[in-house]
Design brief:
The complex is a heterodimer of chains A (371) and B (296).
Chain A: H1 3-9, E1 12-16, H2 23-36, E2 40-46, H3 50-55, E3 66-67, H4 70-76, E4 83-89, H5 91-102, H6 106-113, H7 116-123, H8 128-142, E5 148-152, H9 161-174, H10 178-182, H11 200-211, H12 213-225, H13 227-243, E6 249-255, H14 259-274, E7 279-287, H15 293-301, H16 308-334, E8 340-345, H17 353-364
Chain B: E1 12-17, H1 23-36, E2 41-46, H2 52-55, E3 66-67, E4 72-77, H3 79-91, H4 94-101, H5 104-112, H6 116-130, E5 132-133, E6 136-137, E7 141-145, H7 149-165, H8 169-182, E8 188-194, H9 198-214, E9 219-227, H10 241-265, E10 271-275, H11 284-293
Parallel strand pairs in B: 1-7, 1-8, 2-4, 2-7, 8-9, 9-10
Antiparallel strand pairs in B: 3-4, 5-6
Helix pairs in contact in B: 1-11, 3-6, 7-8, 9-10
Classes of the chains: A alpha/beta (371), B alpha/beta (296).
Chain lengths: 371, 296
């Protein structure tokens, strides 16, 4: 399946890759391209650069899905019936929304919202983004209404954190043991209450020695209060795990020609395949296009008797040629029969963001030249 | 070799910036420079694909410390190993450690807590700072290849947050010490790395603002990496459209460099520029050349 077919037919595209490769821009360009084909598209991004957020009209930090102004879009790409919606994931908004929806009573909701561990969890701790991204994308997809959802994965040191978050969560919840460990005589129905684990006293004393006495009970308060919310998150996680294996769902690995980023993309590919997750292929941003034939011919013919400007141009073209050769090698490392590997050219950084997205989108759907 | 005047020495330095801008390269340069001044240097990578040792032709195994021939030691800190080390230090008995961390409930709970991995890794780097041999510090300098921008704010903030959540005990005390180190301009400096393009520059400005104003952390130098060669004067050349297109692409980049230089120097940090090299992989010679270029 080539890129244009992917954009025309996929239900969920997940862009993943290491930081700084242009993941968010790529996700937005994919969305814009699909909307250009008349599809109703939602792009869910996490912490986009300010310029990109502004280009999509997301400067208000609402954390809700908003339609990108069709008037703005008609200027660049979108004249047809397609719609582009975008949402910037806001951890706190998503988490508070879950508390409101799933807490059994307003009192419980209030207790959660004022718990200190919750405050840290919902605003500042690395890792919370992954949990909340799972919830946000699951909601978006299960509520339906979009032909295509493009999910830009959180900028994690390890792109896989996003995939691991649900499993980590299920693990923590399925053990159901924390309450028993801490309050062995306490909560829960007696019939369901197994014996406390052996060596519990020593275990708790040892753990407390590591962390300080209040940590485990603080955490346990949080988990027990947050239990109803966690159950909902757990459902989202399971749902998403199943969804990721349905037809029409594809991972797209975004990279640049830089050696380290290619290596990370390849590592990510191995992880996806280990988990049996569907990979469409690689999108390699910022590829130096090969010199056009006229330029190459000029360089070939360039005689020794050049003036200063001529020599300067020669140096520039040689520099470009060397970079283009390196980039071509990098792309070749990604190319394999089984998956697609598509280069996207370096675009002038000075054009405005929306125009760049439209240019990229046009290249993706094959309506604007190729690399 | 005399010590660099641009970068006053701090024992604990962290390098951060947008992904892909070359944080590891900068960490390697700083390490080389310190090692050449006769310092015992430890570079900490945080549970990533090792970048530093391979620059020197060494493939490290797991989380083992590697002593490179250039006089620099590198360690890739893994959260699990960091946890074991910390727990053994506090509990003193492996059997107790087993009891706690082989317990599935504790294990999954610890894995579930967001930020726990980061705290463990930062804690291990912190322990290296306190490490001693015969009553003297084991390391003269510790350089941390810190997480990329998006993640680094929560990373730096972590000791403070945990300190507030956990009101007493070891974790409370340890995180206070960690935060004390991070905020001490006499012992710690955070170097920023940027690339001369609009988005990385904007992220750098934002990061600078938040690290300095929100968290009050001491900043070191600002590295502008991957700077393409300056655009030569091409006046008077009659170019065909194909050539014009290539030239325009590079002219736009040159403009972006000028703009980046203007915006980054406004931050008032020492600004060091590192050129973009036409090489798929940097060699030790490349690193030494980069170093000479910025007199590190």
């Amino acid at each position: 399946m080539n890129l244009a077919e992917l954009i025309a037919s996929a239900r969920l595209i997940i862009t993943a890759g290491s930081g700084g490769v242009g993941k968010t821009t790529t996700a937005a360009a994919l969305g814009l391209a699909a909307a250009g084909l008349g599809r109703r598209v939602a792009v869910l991004t996490i912490d986009p650069a300010k310029r990109l957020a502004q280009a999509l009209g997301l400067d208000a930090l609402t954390g809700h899905m908003r339609r990108v102004d069709p008037v703005t879009l008609s200027g660049v790409a979108l004249a047809g019936p397609g719609e582009l919606w975008a949402q910037m994931l806001d951890i706190k908004v998503t988490a508070d929304g879950m508390v409101d929806r799933f807490a059994p009573s307003p009192e419980v909701a209030q207790a959660i919202l004022s718990n200190r561990a919750y405050a840290a969890f919902s605003t500042s701790l690395a890792g919370s983004q992954e949990y909340m991204a799972v919830e946000a994308v699951w909601r978006l997809i299960s509520e339906g209404g979009f032909d295509l959802v493009v999910l830009d994965t959180p900028p994690a040191a390890h792109a896989l954190d996003f995939l691991d978050a649900p499993a980590r969560l299920l693990d923590a919840l399925d053990s159901k043991g924390i309450q028993r460990l801490i309050y062995p005589g306490g909560q829960g129905m007696a019939a369901e209450r197994p014996k406390p684990p052996r060596g519990r006293g020593l275990l708790l004393r040892s753990f407390n020695k590591l962390t300080g006495g209040a940590f485990i009970s603080e955490l346990s308060d949080f988990l027990s209060l947050f239990g109803c919310i966690l159950n909902a998150l757990q459902e989202s996680s399971r749902g998403l795990q199943g969804l990721l294996r349905q037809p029409g769902v594809y991972f797209t690995l975004v990279t640049t020609p830089a050696q380290t980023q290619i290596a990370e993309a390849l590592a990510f590919e191995r992880e996806l395949s280990r988990r049996g997750l569907p990979l469409w292929g690689f999108l390699c941003n910022r590829v130096h296009p090969p010199l056009p034939p006229e330029a190459a011919a000029w360089l070939e013919a360039s005689p020794g008797r050049l003036d200063e400007a001529g020599r300067a141009l020669t140096a520039l073209l040689r520099f470009h040629q060397a970079r283009a050769a390196l980039d071509a090698q990098a792309l070749a490392r990604l190319s394999r029969a089984a998956v697609e590997a598509r280069g996207l050219p370096l675009l002038s950084a000075e054009t405005d963001e929306l125009t760049r997205l439209a240019q990229l989108g046009a290249l993706m759907t094959g309506r604007g030249g190729d690399t | 070799m005399e010590s660099s005047a641009i970068l006053p020495p701090r024992r604990f330095t962290l390098v951060t910036g947008k992904g892909g801008v070359g944080k590891s390269t900068v960490a390697a340069l700083l390490a080389l420079s310190a090692a050449d001044q006769g310092q015992r240097v430890l570079v900490c990578e945080l549970n990533t694909q090792p970048q530093i040792a391979p620059l020197f032709g060494v493939q490290p195994r797991g989380g083992e410390r590697v002593d490179l021939p250039v006089g620099v030691s590198v360690i890739n800190i893994e959260p699990r190993a960091a946890m074991e080390e910390y727990a053994l230090m506090k509990l003193r008995f492996r059997a107790l450690y087993r009891l706690v961390f082989d317990n599935p409930i504790i294990r999954s709970m610890v894995r579930f807590v967001p930020g726990m991995d980061d705290l463990l890794m930062l804690g291990k780097a912190f322990n290296h700072e306190r490490e001693e041999i015969n009553g003297a510090p084991r390391w003269d300098q510790i350089i941390i290849d810190a997480p990329a921008t998006g993640h680094s704010l929560s990373f730096f903030r972590l000791p403070k947050i945990i300190h507030e959540i956990v009101p007493t005990g070891n974790l409370h005390a340890e995180t206070a010490l960690m935060w004390g180190l991070l905020t001490d301009p006499a012992r710690c400096a955070i170097h920023l790395v940027a690339a001369p393009e609009a988005l990385p520059v904007e992220e750098t400005l934002e990061l600078h603002r938040r690290l300095r104003d929100e968290l009050g952390l001491p900043l070191g130098a600002l590295f502008m990496n991957l700077v393409p060669p300056p655009l030569p004067a091409l006046e008077g050349l009659d170019l065909c459209p194909a050539l014009r297109e290539i030239v325009a692409l590079h002219a736009a980049r040159a403009e972006a460099v000028t703009e980046a230089r203007r915006r980054l120097s406004a931050l008032g940090m020492p600004l060091l520029e590192l050129p973009l090299l036409n090489a798929a992989r940097l060699t030790v010679d490349d690193l030494q050349a980069l170093r000479r270029g910025v007199s590190l």
